[in-house]
Specification:
73% of the residues lie in helices and 3% in strands. With 313 residues, the chain is mostly helical. The protein is globular, with a radius of gyration of 21 Å.
Length: 313
């Protein structure tokens, strides 16, 4: 029987988990979570609206930034419903199909963010190493083609996740480890053979490692080009253009690497540590990226301040 038509689920409900031991205070935990989500959604929507409406921002760098904002917005909206249900309404139940759908969108937007950060690193490399041909290499049509190609790649990469999970049989274990569904978390509940899920999950993780590797290589080439500039003032000026992207890469990569290290080398650590680090991975990049780009990008900062002053007057 086809994987697409086979469902061996033996239970009707999974149970999400908030923060163990803090159930009585979950309503208070929900307050900062709600504030972070509101700030992330407003910040990324602001970035998208500014880039759409302001002709001065119709450049490849800002088109890629809009892709990053869209990924962050999707990541926030994917995890928000269940986190609010768990912490605000104390309703941890979720149906298997809803769980599979959520894990698809969370992994899809995470993969998309990784791809956009890679694209932005190449954008910076071309801008610094080949500035005279920058606009001809990254024309508007080519930017759209790059965005669509990477989006399609990520959809095809993550699409098997929910179908392979649906093919598994779930018997007794019902409790997940987080307040949202992740592929590696759901497949551990299965009482049937999940080797296909493990192998495919590792292959998807390897594509993320390749993204990080190519980002690192692009910055090695950028640094080499910067060091060839005679003027120290010009070196600092060029490096300053990369600060926003470097911050975005660190905000995205550090929680993932830290979480992987904890799962690999600190298996007996408190589950609160793993839950906290997984929540940081989902909540901090969408919150911090708009702040970083508003602070470091003079054009975006000026437009935001101009809009605020205009509204006050």
């Amino acid at each position: 029987m086809s994987v697409l038509n086979t469902s061996e689920i033996g239970i009707s409900t999974f149970y999400l988990v908030g923060i163990p031991g803090m159930e009585p205070a979950s309503i208070w935990v929900s307050i900062p979570i709600c504030l972070m989500y509101i700030a992330a959604i407003l910040g990324n929507c602001t970035i998208l609206l500014l880039i759409k409406k302001e002709p001065a921002l119709h450049e490849p760098m800002y088109y890629f930034l809009s892709m990053l904002a869209f990924s962050d917005l999707g990541l926030s909206l994917s995890s928000l419903p269940t986190m609010l249900r768990v912490f605000l309404f104390n309703a941890p139940e979720i149906s298997p199909n809803a769980c599979f759908a959520q894990e698809f969108f969370i992994h899809e937007f995470s993969a998309m963010e990784s791809s956009v950060l890679l694209i932005m690193s190449f954008d910076g490399f071309i801008a610094i190493c080949n500035p005279l041909r920058y606009m001809s290499i990254l024309s508007s049509a080519r930017v759209i083609q790059i965005g669509l190609a990477f989006s399609l790649k990520n959809v095809l990469l993550i699409l098997p996740f929910p179908f392979t999970l649906k093919h598994l049989r779930y018997c007794k274990k019902k409790h997940l480890s987080h307040s949202y569904c992740l592929h590696q978390d759901v497949m551990k509940l299965a009482c049937s053979d999940n080797k296909v899920n493990v192998v495919y999950g590792l292959s998807v993780a390897l594509t993320g490692i390749l993204d990080i590797t190519f980002i690192f290589m692009s910055y090695v080439l950028i640094l080499k080009a910067v060091l060839s500039i005679a003027s120290q003032r010009e070196r600092l000026k060029v490096l300053n253009t990369c600060v926003s992207h470097i911050c975005a890469v660190l905000i995205f990569c550090v929680p993932i690497i830290s979480l992987a290290v904890v799962y690999r080398f600190a298996k007996h650590s408190s589950p609160i540590v793993r839950i906290f680090m997984a929540d940081v991975f989902l909540m901090v990049p969408p919150l911090m990226n708009p702040i970083v780009y508003c602070v470091k990008s003079q054009q975006i900062r000026s437009l935001v301040l101009g809009k605020l002053c205009q509204n006050q007057s």
